[in-house]
Amino acid sequence: MINKTTLKIPVSLVILIYLTVCSSAHVITVNPPTDLQIIDPGHLGQLYVRWHPPASLENRKDCTVRYQLQYFNTYDGEWETIRTSHLNYTAQFNLGKETRVKVQTLLRGQCVNGTDLLSVPTEKTLLSSENGPTESKVTDFACIFYHREYMECNWKKGKEAPPHSKYSLFYWHKKMNQAMECPKYIQTNGVNTGCNFTSNSLMEFTEFNICVNGSSKETPLRPTYFMLQLQNIVKPAALEILNITALENAKIRLKWTPIKGKIPNHCLEYEIQHRQEGQEWISQQITESTFIIFSIDQHEKHCFRVRSKLNIYCADSNVWSDWSKQHCIPDARDPNDTSVQTMALCVLATMILFTLTLFLWIRRQISKGKGVKEGILLGVECEQKMNSP
Predict the structure, then answer these.
(1) CATH, range 23-126
(2) What is the per-residue pLDDT across 284-314, written as a single tens digit (0 to 9) for each?
(3) 81 strand-pairing partners
């Protein structure tokens, strides 16, 4: 006798297997872009990235074709992702470090059932210059844009740079056709250690690229690249407190006028410091050019100073102006300030001279009066003698 065994397979499992087989038979793939290039036009860090579309998509009408570009931001230390329909992109890189770029084709539409389909990436790497020892490049590079009127950049010689190394600075921004050399160098012992820029060679709210390279008879010097946003390194001029007024109820009012120049008043914020003699400074930040301090013992000596910087609405800056000259109440003159002493001496000398002149004039007048009186008496006496028998 033969036993028959029936294998029961759930209908849902059969359907799932069928759909899997069918879908695997219609897998859609997309090719990556071709001919990826990184082009350096000589703008000291601004590079052009270009590519061509895959040939398989030339006649495709049922899908939109876009591209996903990723590049490693060498200034921020992270990957940036851009999606675009164009075949090129311009990005900022630090040429002193390795440049890495990758691009993928992105399909969207009916051909991929309304989903997004990415190709495998096409990648490109641009190696940094290794000309010269790493420690031969300049150190402590810093720039300050003073009052939005001129900029000064300074640097120090690299640790492994020979003693008689020569450094040069080149700069570029988007309004320039090509990079240019520093208009006026700052020198220390005959060596370039900085650069002065006038306002007509500067541009804010865009990348301001700088390269400091050098040469030496002994060894090549490695170039260094920097990217600045000039509005973020503006240093305002030092302020002056124009008026300190003692008010009722132990209050002090401070009022000052921002320095006239190229920085709009609405772009400034202020830090005020005040202290009683012998105590620590107390700081407060405000946005107005008037400030009232409460609970001040006006019989004790209190000193005040103020500084300014660009606020968050005009720049991303942490560059403060120098502190204003310290002002105190009751008024205490700076011991190094001789102007008041000089004025007092001038007034005293004038008074002494005036007194001496007045004394001499009075004495002269008295002498004149006495001479006239003696002359009259002498005349009378002579007349009497002449008339006597």
Answers:
(1) 2.60.40.10
(2) 999 999 988 887 776 788 889 999 999 999 9
(3) 70
Average pLDDT of every residue of the chain: 84
Torsion of CA 146, 307, 262, 178, to 10 degrees: 30
- Angstrom CA distances, 87 to 48, 54, 104, 293, 302, stand at 11, 11, 11, 61, 66
Let me know: does 191 contact 224? Beta carbons within 8 Å: no
Q: Nearest-CA neighbor of 227 among 69, 43, 41?
A: 43
Contact 137, 117 (CB under 8 A): no
pLDDT, position 14: 52
Yes or no: is domain 237-329 CATH 2.40.50.200? no
Dist CA 71 CA 126 (whole Å): 11
Please give the Cα distance from 349 to 294 (Å, whole number). 43
Half-sphere exposure of 284 (CA within 13 A, CB side): 14
The answer on pLDDT for 192 being more than 50 is yes
Distance, in Å, from the CA atom of 359 to the CA atom of 367, rounded to the nearest integer, reads 12
Q: Give the list of residues 6+ apart from residue 48 with CB closer than 8 angstroms, or none.
A: 37, 38, 39, 41, 88, 89, 90
Q: What is the pLDDT of residue 219?
A: 86
Domain ranges across the chain? 23-126, 134-234, 237-329
pLDDT digits (tens, 9 = 90+) for 2-38: 444 444 556 565 555 544 544 444 456 889 999 999 9
DSSP annotation of 282 = E
pLDDT tens figures, 115-129: 889 999 999 999 988
CATH of the domain spanning 134-234: 2.60.40.10
